[in-house]
Amino acid sequence: MKLLAYVSGIAASVVGVAQFAAAAPFLSNAAAAPSAVDSVFGIARGGGLFGGGGKRKDSVADVEDKLRAESGETFPAMSQEEVEEWLGHIPVFAVTDSNGAGVVLKPDNDTSVMYFFFSPQMANATLAQLKGTNDDLDLKLSAFSLGKIWFKMLNSGDSEQEIKLKQPGEDDSEAQILAGANVEYRLVPDTRDLLGARMLLTMTPEDGEEMKKAGDTMTPELAQKAVEKAMTESPEFKENYNEIPVFLIAQMRMQKPPADDEKGAPKTILPMYFSLQTMVQTWQQFMASQNDPDLKDMEPAINVMNLHKLVAMMREPSEIDFRSCLLLPPIPTGPMGAGGAGAGAAAGMAGQASAPDAMAGMGGGGGTLGDI
Q1: Rounded to an integer, what distance in angstroms lies between the CA atom of residue 89 and that of residue 359?
Q2: Residue 88 region by backbone torsions, left for phi larger than 0, else alpha for psi between -120 and 50, else beta
Q3: What pLDDT is recorded for position 35?
Q4: Which is deepest, 61, 186, 266, 357, by most CB within 10 Å?
Q5: What three-state secondary structure class fits 80?
Q6: Alpha-carbon gap, residue 337 to 353, rounded angstroms
């Protein structure tokens, strides 16, 4: 468990939903039973930080191996509407004008780019940079629902959609009309999570043992070695945008209580995290509360997946019940005001606010959500 904290800590230093807020994680029955661990998860008793010591599989195949239903059941593909709802409570942030219209940047004469950020701090840094070039620009941060923009903007492929480009303060008569295909939408992950994903994909069992031996005396040289390896050898997440890591621990589950107007037992849910640090904190809190010595020493079997690949898997029939998975957003802990994004690292599950509340306080007031 300390090794996982080291990975998260190095990444952090270098660079759900309301009804789930107080949910306590637990080990799935299959993962907790000694006789079932090997057959269900392909890992030895006690897990393994990266799902085992053998040759690393493709991330998609690895997730399929660990999460397929024990019954062998195949679940129907999720519709576009279901995926939009599944992503709907995740806030992303963009620089907009006072009316909520997105700011399109032109790094060169042939490129027009609009950025959406998972991190409000990174979005606010872009806002500050733009305002630094012209104090008269009336710009702000606005929050958007990832579900609402996933198909309509980020992955639309609609070359016929017309987009109006104009300078802030100008009226529509002065706007330049561009086809949708000429504007590139970039979804930017938190750089800490991007580095954490690269480290998880490049760290070998030998690297892990070296870090464990170092313990609390982790040296800057050892940390730098891990970072350099992650930056140069990672097979995925090589780009700084549109490759979004999603983290999960195969053994961990949560329970979704029935809605007020529903009856029945709570539903077992697999949590998935955009924030590596939030996942690490949740796992550490959970393991600290265990009385079973064997469980206290269990290493988590971590998987990291590209969000685009995950959504592609959901759109096909699968042995994984994605309708029983929950994405947990990286909720900021600090206040955000006009032009400011005070946000610390996401807290553990007990401290998370609901996503609608988070979006309502992100400067834009969530007012742009209905405009998409």
Answers
A1: 9
A2: alpha
A3: 27
A4: 186
A5: helix
A6: 17
Q: Tell how strand 111-117 and strand 105-108 pair up.
A: antiparallel
For the stretch 57-86, pLDDT in tens is 466 666 666 666 666 789 999 999 999 999
Supply the pTM of this predicted model: 0.73
Q: What is the pLDDT of residue 170?
A: 56
And the tokens for 367?
């007012």
Reading the block at residue 84, the tokens are: 């939009």
Closest to 197 measured CA to CA, from 43, 345, 51, 11: 11
pLDDT at residue number 53: 38
Indicate left, alpha or beta for 245 from its phi (over 0: left) and psi (-120 to 50: alpha).
beta
- How many angstroms separate the CA atoms of 346 and 120, rounded? 12
Q: For the chain, report the end-to-end CA distance as a whole number of angstroms.
A: 42
Q: What is the pLDDT of residues 30-53, one digit of tens each?
A: 333 332 222 222 222 233 344 333
Greater confidence (257 vs 345) lies with 257
Burial of 8 by CB count in 10 Å (0-12 exposed, 13-18 middle, 19+ buried)? buried
DSSP state of 53: S
